[in-house]
Write a structure and sequence with these properties.
The chain is mainly beta. The chain has one domain. The chain contains 1 helix and 11 strands; from the N terminus they run H-E-E-E-E-E-E-E-E-E-E-E. The protein starts with 7 loop residues before the first helix and ends with a strand.
Length: 183
């Protein structure tokens, strides 16, 4: 049996494009107004508070910088496995919701939900919001004006060392370029 080595970034991009679908078009029908932005997500610049500049420019799905200048410890921000595509803002273009996983050099592993709008075929990440520490995102979904996260977390009072087993559904409304959790 032969093993095939494929760089992780190519597998990730391939899996993103496999998750999107192209509309079936009739002959003579004009092409869609906006292209898919899924292939741009691993190399987009995301607003996120853990980056020293407030923005993390990913390259092949990863951003890394020293915690402080000259430090050996780094903050690592990577694109998570969570992905949803759909028209969240009603402009007819395919937007995206993704997860960003932040490892700031300590024991925490923080997951953010990021909203990426389709700006005439260009991925434009507009906001990110912390959704948990050492959680498991089971799914993301986009509905008009809404992003829904299904995740596993812990009961109040459980130690962070406990495996997340409590399923929670969180709903975020899109207000302009912001995500606001619906309570």
């Amino acid at each position: 049996m032969r093993l095939l080595f494929v760089p992780r970034s190519l597998v990730w991009v391939w899996s993103l494009t496999a998750c999107t679908s192209s509309p079936i078009m009739s002959p003579g029908q004009p092409p869609p107004q906006h292209a898919s932005i899924a292939k741009e997500l691993p190399n987009a610049e995301y607003p996120i508070e853990f980056a020293s500049s407030g923005k993390a420019q990913l390259k092949d799905g990863v951003f890394e910088e020293p915690v402080v200048p000259g430090a050996a410890t780094t903050t690592r921000i990577r694109l998570g496995k969570g992905l949803a595509v759909g028209d969240v803002n009603g402009d007819g273009a395919e937007d995206a919701a993704v997860t960003l996983v932040v490892q700031p050099g300590g024991s925490g592993v923080f997951t953010f939900l990021a909203l990426v709008l389709n700006d005439n075929g260009t991925a434009r990440p507009v906001t990110s919001i912390l959704i948990g520490d050492r959680i498991v995102v089971k799914s993301l979904a986009i509905q008009p004006g809404t992003v829904i996260v299904t995740m596993l977390t812990r009961n109040p009072g459980e130690p962070m060392s406990a495996a997340p087993t409590v399923e929670v559904r969180r709903v975020f409304k899109v207000r302009g370029n912001h995500l606001l959790e619906e309570r």
